[in-house]
């Protein structure tokens, strides 16, 4: 990883989209600071299309799409994208799975949740689980723990043994039955909403994140950035980001936004 100060000025001029993780990238200690939200708004007001790409649930993402200065939002690690048109007052909701497929997967995830809680006593179902439509979130650091790495790995192993995908964020292990991730839904959003083939135009996007569930984005986008608190996760990453901020969490996002708008 290179310092954010080495980010090339020529690359800044081409960027039209800012994609960002939320937890511990935009937020700090579970809070969205005024400075971080202001940076988000500054990016949007300067004409950049801002798109959170998060592990957070559908219920939260509906609010984000409506109330935040964003163009769209991808949630549950790529299970869907939402986009709200303020002129027509209409929400576009696109899911990776059909409603029937989501219902079938939910029953399997509920059984998996029981197995995980029995095997890893310190784990909890994430508090935002009732607002999810396509995945299972096991809390290891938000309202419990933090659990040691061995127990986090145990949760991942149990998900894999059940045939589920599993991704680690800074607070949760998310599991789902399906072949999506953050990158797959990002590519679909860009094709369907913006008419852009990202394989041909990756240089119009900057992505900033902080944890292993962001790795597909780090690997794909040349202009990938992490806030400084990514460092404890580097041993888990085969594809680290290209650049890293000096500051952590929301302060790192503010640093990134200032650089992009300078």
Provide a brief overview of the structure.
This protein has 262 residues and is of the alpha/beta class. The protein contains 8 helices and 13 strands.
Task: Report what the structure shows.
- The chain has two domains: 177 residues, Rossmann fold, CATH 3.40.50; 78 residues, Hypothetical Protein Ta0175, Chain: A, domain 2.
- The chain is built from eight helices and 13 strands.
- Strand 2, helix 2 and strand 3 form a beta-alpha-beta unit.
- It is globular and about 50 Å long.
What's the story with the biggest beta sheet?
6 strands, parallel
What would you say the CATH architecture of the largest domain is? 3-Layer(aba) Sandwich
Poorly predicted residue ranges: none
Class of secondary structure makeup: alpha/beta
Report the end-to-end length measured between terminal Cα atoms: 21 Å
Backbone CA Rg: 18 Å
- As for the CATH topology of the largest domain, it is Rossmann fold
Listing every helix as H and every strand as E from the N terminus to the C terminus, the arrangement reads: EHEHEHEEEHEEHEEHEHEEH
Overall body shape: globular
Beta strands, count? 13
Q: Estimate what percentage of residues fall within beta strands.
A: 15-25%
**Count of helix runs:** 8
For the record, the CATH class of the largest domain is Alpha Beta
**CATH level-four homologous superfamily name of the largest domain:** HAD superfamily/HAD-like
Q: What is the domain total for the residues? A: 2
Helix content: 25-40%
Strand order within the widest sheet?
Answer: 1-13-12-11-2-3
Question: What do the pLDDT scores average to?
Answer: 98
């Amino acid at each position: 990883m290179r310092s954010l100060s080495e980010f090339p000025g020529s690359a800044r001029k081409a960027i039209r989209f800012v994609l960002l993780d939320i937890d511990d990238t935009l937020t700090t200690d579970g809070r969205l600071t005024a400075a971080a939200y202001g940076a988000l708004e500054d990016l949007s007001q300067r004409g950049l299309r801002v798109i959170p790409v998060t592990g957070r649930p559908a219920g939260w993402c509906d609010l984000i799409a409506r109330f935040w200065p964003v163009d769209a939002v991808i949630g549950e690690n790529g299970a869907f994208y939402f986009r709200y048109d303020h002129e027509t007052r209409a929400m576009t909701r696109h899911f990776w799975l059909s409603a029937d497929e989501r219902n079938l997967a939910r029953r399997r995830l509920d059984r998996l949740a029981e197995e995980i809680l029995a095997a890893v006593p310190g784990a909890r179902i994430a508090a935002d689980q009732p607002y999810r439509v396509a995945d299972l979130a096991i809390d290891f650091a938000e309202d419990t723990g933090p659990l040691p790495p061995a127990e986090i790995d145990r949760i991942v192993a149990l998900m894999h043994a059940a045939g589920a995908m599993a991704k680690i964020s800074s607070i949760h292990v998310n599991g789902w039955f399906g072949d999506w991730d953050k990158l797959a839904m990002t590519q679909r959003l860009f094709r369907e909403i913006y008419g852009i083939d990202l394989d041909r135009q990756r240089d119009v996007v900057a992505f900033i994140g902080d944890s292993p569930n962001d790795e597909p984005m780090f690997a794909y986008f040349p202009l990938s950035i992490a806030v400084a608190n990514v460092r404890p996760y580097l041993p888990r990453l085969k594809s680290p980001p290209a650049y890293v901020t000096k500051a952590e969490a929301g302060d790192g996002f503010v640093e990134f936004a200032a650089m992009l708008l300078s």
